[in-house]
Amino acid sequence: MARESRTKYAVLGMLNQGPKCGYEIKKELEKSSMFFWNESYGQIYPMLKKLVANGLSTLEVIERDEQPDMKVYTITDDGREELERWLRQPAEPHPIRNEMLLKLFFGASTSIDMNIAHVERLKDRLQRQQENLDQEREELIDEFGEDDQMVFFGLLTSGYGQTVNDALQKWCDETLEKLREMRS
Q1: Fold of the domain spanning 7-88
Q2: Among 33, 45, 128, 165, whose Cα sits 20 to 30 Å from the Cα of 135?
Q3: Domain extent listing, the chain
Q4: Is the pTM of this model over 0.70?
Q5: To which H or E segment does residue 144 belong?
Q6: What's the CA gap between 98 and 83, in Å, rounded?
Q7: How many CB atoms lie within 10 A of CB 30?
Q8: Residues 79, 70: contact at Cβ < 8 Å?
Q9: What distance in Å separates the CA atoms of residue 45 and residue 60, rounded to the nearest whole number?
Q10: In sequence order, which residues have a C-beta less than 8 Å from that of residue 100 and are 6 or more positions away?
Q11: Rounded distance, CA 175 to CA 107, Å?
Q12: pLDDT at residue number 158
């Protein structure tokens, strides 16, 4: 049996937080779930059309004078039921695909300096992501308050991101030390 696309549920979950256009869905997913989920515009926009066609979302076109019309999507009651049905199901394992680790795995086929450069780029990206996590946490609390349920669950997943980020930064430091020792 083919595995059902989880894009549907990522989009429904974002719409369950309030009406949004495709651009807002993409940006909020990038900001709030960078450590555990991503969707491309090429996945989001076709899914929004399917959700409307299947009665799980509605579409409102908002005309704007100096910009293209904006399409705003809103989850329907059927969409909420579908999201709740999915939320009750156990999560399936998700395969990990990490190109940097794949390159490091084959690192014997290139120079130590190239391997070091790959790990240093990852460490730099992780440091930027850490800053984004900190900012996201502050924005959530400022906008909704610490007692809001959406904030509570957002902070739980942000905590996961923090833990993963810390562990990966530690791994980067240890790996860079080993690679630099090989270079000596």
Answers
A1: Arc Repressor Mutant, subunit A (1.10.10)
A2: 45
A3: 7-88, 99-183
A4: yes
A5: helix 112-144
A6: 29
A7: 13
A8: no
A9: 14
A10: 118, 119, 121, 122
A11: 12
A12: 83
CA distances to 14, 44, 113, 116 from 49, rounded to whole Å, are 15, 9, 47, 44
d(CA 79, CA 134): 32
Residue-wise burial string across 45-79, b where 16 or more C-beta atoms lie within 10 A, e elsewhere: bebbeebbeeebbeeeeeeeeeeeeebbbebbeeb
**pLDDT tens per residue across all 184 residues of the chain:** 345 688 999 999 999 999 999 999 999 888 877 777 888 899 999 999 999 999 999 999 999 999 999 999 999 999 999 999 999 999 888 777 789 999 999 999 999 999 999 999 999 999 998 888 888 788 878 877 878 888 888 888 888 888 999 999 999 999 999 999 998 7
The 10 Å Cβ neighbour count of residue 166 is 12
Q: Could you give the CA distance from residue 79 to residue 12 in angstroms, rounded to a whole number?
A: 7
